[in-house]
Specification:
Chain A: It comes from Micromonospora craterilacus. Chain A: This is Methyltransferase domain-containing protein. The complex is a heterodimer of chains A (513) and B (912). Chain A contains 15 helices and 17 strands. With 513 residues, chain A is an alpha/beta fold. Chain A has 2 domains: 37-193, Endonuclease Chain A (Endonuclease, Chain A); 212-504, Rossmann fold. In chain A, strands 10, 11, 12, 13, 14, 15, 16 and 17 form an 8-stranded mixed beta sheet that branches. Chain A has a 7-stranded mixed beta sheet with strand order 1-9-8-7-2-3-4, sandwiched between helices. Chain A has a two-stranded antiparallel sheet with strand order 5-6. Chain A is elongated, with a radius of gyration of 28 Å. Chain B contains 37 helices and 16 strands. The model of chain B is unreliable at 791-811 and 905-912 (pLDDT under 50). In chain B, helix 24 (530-547) packs across helix 25 and helix 32 runs antiparallel to helix 33. The longest helix of chain B has 34 residues, at 755-788. In chain B, strands 6-7-8-5-9 form a 5-stranded parallel beta sheet, with helices on both faces. Chain B is globular. The chains are: A alpha/beta (513), B alpha/beta (912). At the A-B interface, helix 1, strand 6, helix 5, strand 14 and helix 13 of A face helix 9, helix 20, helix 21, helix 24 and helix 33 of B.
Chain lengths: 513, 912
């Protein structure tokens, strides 16, 4: 098929300008749309939009605002307009606060400022992990829908203004008077309002430290830092940046094994140990600061205080989690000791124990990084590091508890697709999609990192609970009561973990002698 | 159709329908005990104790508790009442009491929702096959390494390409183990029904071994990667629960072995490479062939030891090394009649992709296949007909295409494979898609998934959802568009009955039988989606208002639109697609003919379909004509495509992309995607204008990925696939589509004001099904495509210098260092890969003579490369290196690296 070729006629400058105007008209028709009941505006038009709409509010403006977007300097104009509006109409503002704990200085200061300006603010906690009723989901028409973590306003319950965040992270604004849009927005508003914590009521919260906002801050730091700070580690003998870069984003959405999956166990055991006098503590192997957060939480709970200097040590072969621990401790106004070292090395053990034997070793799901022989060496190292009577608090993944989905059967609600890596990636995207605006890294990039993690993550089978008990016994440990096997959601498949607390026998001088 | 009761449940079936729990469990116990191999004091490797007890409990339901023991341990399993009822009433799955026990022991949860599914049987190859393997087997470095690793107590995986002698090596080990009193379980993973339960069943049936040791052979592990986790978990359980001393000896592709080594959990399998070249060398060492003949055999075999062995055996008969044509004759000797020819051809096409044909699937080909089996041309192994090694399958397939006109008479090979997948059941489909997802080739694992398996999972769910909605209302609310797209998806997802329900309504609802009719006419008033076109006109009015005084590009203003005419043209496209792609049993040629005639009458003088302002109507008709199997050689298609590509200035709709002409009711991205798809499907090669439009479309990613625009997204993905002939740019966005569709299925958010909302699920389902099949075809061709491209064989010239002793003083003789040699070997692999991809890109149902010439050239290039590769060694002539280099530059173009050239040989030290 021949393609026609022709030499265009020469145009005057005025004609070219006219052409440009006409191109803009085509662009507008395409961008704004030709729907009489809705219009779309580019993100840069926000000031014009607010200016135009604010004067049209008759009696009420309901605003849903993700908390982290509040208070940016660029919003000063916006806030001024809404303050003026509040003088003649009711401006209700709902802050969506990531995490379970909505108490805190920043958010409360924001609420106080809003009230001082005659706005009616409330705060609603929204969890990221997709669980329980307060799970980042709301209902509409009896069905569960994801809470959009983007700005949404409802004007006089007649017109909806909502942000539309594109794949590139840039936002547009859509203004609609479609009855379905308005109804949906109002339903979301009322549903979320029912979740506003009532002052004075006991806010039930999961055990363990609340880390959502810390993770939102540090996940991007680890993502950027891992390629520079990671090297050979127990996860990967060459470079573990694929592991640490994705880790905190996966933590944020509760998709990886962490002490949070065993929060009650760790909280109880650690508090018990600290109350029993444990002060010199070693965290042996860690992916980030989550284990440290549990230890510090326990110290604070047990002693009512978190001193500026702690005898808490973290040892890992990779620099990245150590930097994360250092950062987290500083956020809490304290300091811990970090050691970039291999726990299986006798020299490292000697060096660590030079400062005195430890009272407590904490290691979350660490042993399955090693095959059986090396895992035995790690247990020996712990034995050498602890004082007689000292304890290890740890969890061990049991591979016999893997619930591999049957590829022949219709997939259950958890395993919605057969390929486990695809399933993992899709679950991540599902959980992260509406939080796109709060993540500093693009969802597509994160998605690829998450996929790498799922495809490369390895875990060794150390046998059943009895075999692990035997391995500890060989290194002079006695398992304390509470030796329990519990099922958790798992990463790729539903999994069982052994939760154990092992005490070094009083007469044990350490296996290495 | 009622399912006949299966074998093995005599006592249960004697109870009559719906027996009470107590009677059922008692009868099931009796049936189970009858099946146990306990006569004459024999004891099975897994021994079932006869004291099976009946357990009544409200907590987990009633069941039969069976205790099973081996020398090193024992365990109890529970056969639930619901599972017993399900198994004893479903003959198609063939679950006998012992098979049900195997399922329970292998870790399957026999809950209420458990569905009986066939369990493949682990069977040793027949004595004839073992004898053949014995003729083929020789001691090689690979076989020695396997023996060494096994002796050290490791599980071993033998990896290697097709025909390298993996199975012969494993069979040799298995025979040795049997001789020394070990037990052997042999599972060929090519049957997707083979899995953990098959191994347990074999252990329940076979005698306890004299030594207490067992070898578990997992042949072709790469064929079903999906079961790898459950399989290895089961083996671990057999070791831990029963103390069975099991050793695994698997065969697989190199790429699949890497997946197992780096999986989660880590599988401690020692990989050993088996090389066909080494085995062929050993076979030749013991032969009477001279050097020239040996070189010819090597060249002919192309590292396939089976071919080498056949060639050596034929040498005795022919008095010379056979050619490919001789081999083809040999493998098709004594085939008589069309039935045998078709059976052998179909089996060969499947064999090229390592598929088999189960006896129960053979249907009318059963008899000719049996005749072929008796003639020694096909084998019956483990309940399935096979043709033998892949290269042999390829030779038979080529022969059939050359001599029997097989393409015309019984479909092209890839069509046969796709049909086999369609009808082979969900497990075969999933195993195949998973292999395509994970492996690029036998040697290379895929770094990123193609999401085919996941697409399939989503499609299955979409299919079920559509089917249930269809059952409630096959008219889809009297919405023609929704019904047609749903029908397309249902057809592709193997729900022909649901398709028929739609057809019954639709064929009565629209009429085009009148030989003079200009457009299809609705019966009893317009279908409901006509209302959309009224709104479309309103959207056009809005667009005109926005554009101001100047009219739209096509010159038509909204007020001039004949809405009914536009709607009927669109309907024409849909009806063409619907009838043109009807399932075979419902295909009505006269309807297709009538619709094509209507299209010829309905088109405008310049080729478009009214209205010219709205090019997506013309694109829809072109797509419909393509589904009716018409291409650019048909005048209606040709004129419509020419019009679509015509510039605005020349009265066409093309302005570097296509504008919808209907405001934002249909967006420009969707319109452009649709036009591109129509053009490519019609057979228009990617011209600069289309490339520009494609570039524009991909640059608009932000727009077509906005939530709520799934129709646009799926159209763009399909267009991109057609335009680039690669899944690379598609996979990234498939995730987004999956996520949206899953959310949509869980929580439908229908907004009746938007047309997309009404069409969304059926349209996207139909598009997604198209996309998946396109990728499957594309990737299968990449993996195997060069095998499907074929011209009559010409034996490659064997250069004399390959075998002639090379004088030490040869001026061109150079030494390659190991590093240099590796670089050149990598270069050869790069050329091979490029040739494979380029052939695959040119393959497909539409092939021009230019494309055929290009394919022929590539096939010749590959032959030359093979000859050159044979010569690639540490000591090497420069001339062939130069030929490889020239080939690389021509095939790989700018991606061809600068390779290290050898230095002149240094004077060797005289031996002392």
């Amino acid at each position: 098929m021949a393609e026609p070729s022709s030499t265009p006629e020469r145009m005057t400058p005025a004609e070219l300008i006219e052409r440009a105007r006409r191109a803009n008209l085509f662009f507008r028709a395409s961008y704004e749309g030709t729907d009489t009941q809705s219009v779309r505006l580019p993100g840069a038009a926000v000031d014009e939009l607010i200016q135009g709409l604010a004067s049209g509010v008759h009696s009420e403006l309901c605003q849903i605002v993700p908390y982290s977007t509040a208070g940016r300097p660029a919003d000063l104009f916006t806030r001024a307009v809404f303050r003026q509006l509040a003088q003649r109409a009711t401006v209700r503002r709902m802050y969506l606060v990531p995490g379970e704990d909505v108490s805190g200085g920043d958010i409360d200061r924001q609420l106080a400022e809003d009230r001082a300006n005659d706005l009616h603010p409330v705060k609603v906690p929204v969890r990221l992990d997709g669980k329980t009723t307060h799970d980042g989901k709301a209902t509409y028409d009896g069905k569960t829908v994801q809470v959009p973590m983007t700005d949404m306003w409802l004007i006089d319950r007649q017109v909806v203004v909502r942000q539309e965040v594109g794949r590139d992270g840039l936002a547009s604004w859509v203004v609609s008077r479609h009855a379905e849009d308005v109804e949906r927005a109002w339903s979301l508003w009322t549903d979320l309002m029912s979740r506003v914590p009532v002052a004075g009521e006991d806010q039930r919260r999961r055990p363990g430290p609340e880390l959502t906002r810390s993770l939102l801050q540090s996940a991007s730091m680890l993502y950027a830092m891992a390629p520079m700070s990671c090297g050979p580690s127990h996860q990967d003998s060459v470079n573990c940046s694929w592991y640490h870069a994705a880790w905190q984003y996966l933590r944020l959405f509760d998709m990886v094994s962490s002490p949070q999956w065993h929060a009650q166990f760790y909280t109880e055991r650690l508090v018990e140990a600290v109350r029993g006098g444990a002060r010199r503590v070693l965290i042996s192997g860690t992916a980030d600061y989550t284990t440290l957060a549990f230890v510090l939480d326990a110290i604070r709970s047990a002693t009512g205080d978190l001193p500026e200097q702690l005898d808490v040590h973290v040892v890992d072969k990779c620099q990245t989690p150590l930097l994360a621990c250092h950062w987290y401790a500083k956020q809490l106004g304290t300091e811990v000791h970090v050691h970039k070292a291999d726990i299986t090395s006798p020299d490292v053990v000697r060096r660590l124990v030079d400062g005195g034997p430890f009272d407590l070793v904490v290691a979350d799901a660490f042993l399955t990084r090693f095959d059986r022989d090396d895992a035995a060496t790690v247990i020996d190292s712990w034995s050498d590091l602890l004082r007689p009577g000292g304890t290890v608090v740890t969890t061990v993944r049991l591979h016999e508890g893997n619930e591999w989905p049957n590829s022949d059967e219709a997939q259950d609600d958890r395993h919605r697709v057969t390929d486990l890596v695809d399933d993992f990636e899709l679950r991540f995207r599902e959980r992260a999609a509406s939080w796109r605006g709060l993540l500093s890294v693009q969802l597509e990039e994160l998605s690829a990192a998450v996929r790498r993690y799922a495809a490369r993550m390895e875990s060794h089978d150390l046998g059943d609970a009895e075999e692990i008990r035997t391995a500890f016994g060989r290194s002079g440990f006695t398992l304390l009561s509470g030796f329990e096997v519990e099922g958790v959601e798992g990463e790729l498949v539903r999994t069982k973990y052994l939760r154990l607390c092992a005490q070094l026998s009083g007469d044990s001088g350490g296996s290495g002698g | 159709m009622t399912d006949e009761p299966p074998d093995g449940w005599m006592t249960v079936n004697a109870l009559g329908p719906e027996p009470d729990a107590f009677k059922l469990l008692g009868a099931a116990r009796q049936d189970l005990l009858v099946q146990l191999p306990s006569s004459g004091g024999r004891r099975a490797a897994l021994h079932v104790l006869p004291e099976a007890s009946i357990e009544f409990t409200d907590r987990v339901g009633h069941g039969l508790v069976v205790r099973v023991e081996a020398l090193g341990g024992a365990t109890e399993v529970r056969l639930s009442e619901t599972a017993l009822r399900a198994a004893s009433t479903s003959a198609s799955a063939g679950i006998t009491p012992l098979v049900l026990l195997s399922c329970a022991l292998s870790g399957e949860a026999l809950r209420a929702e458990w569905r009986p599914q066939r369990v493949g049987h682990a069977q040793l190859p027949s004595q004839a096959t073992l004898d053949y393997y014995s003729r083929l087997h020789r001691v090689t470095p690979g076989s020695s390494k396997v023996a060494e690793e096994l002796a050290a107590g490791h599980d071993v995986m033998v990896v290697g390409d097709h025909g390298c002698g993996k199975s012969a090596l494993v069979a040799n080990v298995a025979e040795q183990r049997l001789d020394q009193g070990d037990g052997v379980v042999w599972l060929n993973m090519s049957d997707p029904a083979d899995g953990p339960a098959s191994i347990v069943l074999a252990l329940l049936q076979q005698d306890s071994s004299a030594t207490g040791e067992y070898l578990v052979v997992l042949e072709n592990l790469h064929a079903n990667l999906l079961v790898r986790n459950t399989l290895f978990s089961c083996l671990e359980r057999l070791r831990s629960d029963f103390g069975l001393r099991l050793q695994v000896l698997a065969t697989s592709w190199k790429s699949a072995a890497a997946l197992l080594r780096h999986g989660e959990p880590n599988r401690a399998l020692k990989s050993v490479l088996a090389e066909g070249r080494q085995l062929i060398n050993q076979l030749l060492v013991g032969s009477r062939l001279d050097d020239t003949a040996r070189a010819t055999v090597r060249s002919l075999a192309q590292n396939d030891a089976h071919i080498a062995l056949t060639a050596m055996e034929l040498y005795g008969t022919l008095g010379r090394v056979p050619t490919e044509a001789d081999l083809e004759e040999h493998y098709t000797r004594a085939v008589t009649g069309a039935g045998q020819q078709e059976a052998l051809y179909r089996l060969a096409c499947l064999g090229v992709l390592e598929f088999q044909m189960a006896v129960r699937e053979a249907g009318r080909l059963r008899q000719p296949l049996e005749q072929l089996r008796v003639a020694g041309l096909v084998y019956l192994i483990d309940g399935a007909y096979q043709i033998g090694p892949r290269r042999r399958a390829q030779l038979v397939m080529n022969h059939a295409r050359d001599r029997w006109d097989a393409d015309q008479r019984w479909h092209r090979p890839e069509e046969i494979v796709l049909m086999h997948l369609h009808h082979g059941g969900e497990r075969l489909m999933k195993a195949t898609l998973s292999r395509l997802d994970l492996l690029v080739s036998p040697d290379e694992a895929r770094p990123d998934s193609l999401y085919l398996l996941t697409s399939w999972d989503i499609l299955i769910r979409l299919g079920r959802s559509l089917r249930s909605r269809n059952a409630a209302d096959p008219t889809w609310g009297d919405n023609l568009g929704a019904a047609v797209f749903a029908a397309s998806a249902l057809r592709q997802l193997n729900h022909p009955d649901a398709w028929e329900e739609i057809a019954n309504w639709l064929r009565a609802r629209w009429d085009y039988a009148d030989p003079g009719c200009l457009l299809p006419e609705p019966v009893d008033g317009e279908t409901a989606d006509y209302a959309d076109f009224v709104e479309i006109q309103q959207s056009m009015v809005e667009e005109d208002t926005l554009l101001g005084a100047e009219p739209h590009l096509a010159g038509m203003v909204a007020g001039q639109l004949d809405t009914g005419r536009m709607y009927r043209n669109w309907v024409l496209g849909l009806l063409l697609g619907f009838e043109g792609s009807a399932p075979p049993q419902h295909y009505d040629e006269s309807r297709v003919k009538q619709l094509v005639e209507v299209a010829a009458r309905a088109r405008e003088d310049d080729g478009n379909f009214y209205p010219a302002r709205v090019p997506w109507v013309t694109a829809r008709v072109v797509l419909g004509l393509c589904q009716a199997d018409l291409r650019m050689d048909h005048p209606v298609v040709r004129d419509a495509c020419n019009w679509l590509m015509r510039q605005v200035a020349q009265g066409g709709p093309f302005d570097n992309w296509w504008r919808s002409g209907t405001g934002s009711w249909n967006r420009e991205e969707a319109t452009t995607a649709m036009c591109l798809s129509a053009l490519v499907r019609a057979g228009v090669e990617m011209r600069p204008g289309m490339q520009t439009a494609h570039a524009w479309l991909m640059g608009r990613e932000r727009e077509w990925t906005i939530p709520g625009r799934e129709i646009d997204l799926s159209q763009v993905l399909e267009a991109n696939l057609h335009c680039t002939a690669t899944a690379a740019g598609t996979r990234e966005h498939l995730q987004t589509l999956f996520h949206r569709m899953r959310t949509e299925m869980k929580n439908p958010t229908l907004l009746p004001t938007a047309p997309e909302e009404r069409l969304r699920i059926p349209f996207v389902a139909a598009q997604l099904a198209d996309i998946v099949w396109s990728i499957v075809q594309m990737e299968s061709l990449k993996l195997y495509g060069d095998l499907f491209n074929h011209r009559p064989p010409e034996p490659p010239e064997v250069p004399q210098q390959r075998v002639a002793p090379v004088p030490a003083e040869s001026p061109n003789r150079k030494l390659l260092t190991d590093r240099q040699l590796r670089a050149w070997q990598r270069g050869v692999e790069q050329i091979e890969q490029a040739i494979r991809e380029q052939i695959a890109m040119r393959d497909g149902p539409v092939r021009t003579s230019a494309m055929q010439e290009a394919v022929d050239q590539l096939v010749n290039d590959r032959k030359e490369l093979f000859v050159l590769t044979e010569l690639l060694d540490g000591e090497f002539d420069v001339d062939p290196l130069a030929r490889i280099d020239a080939l690389g530059r021509r095939i790989c173009e700018e991606t061809w690296p600068e390779l290290p050239w050898p230095d002149p040989p240094t004077q060797r030290e005289p031996e002392r």
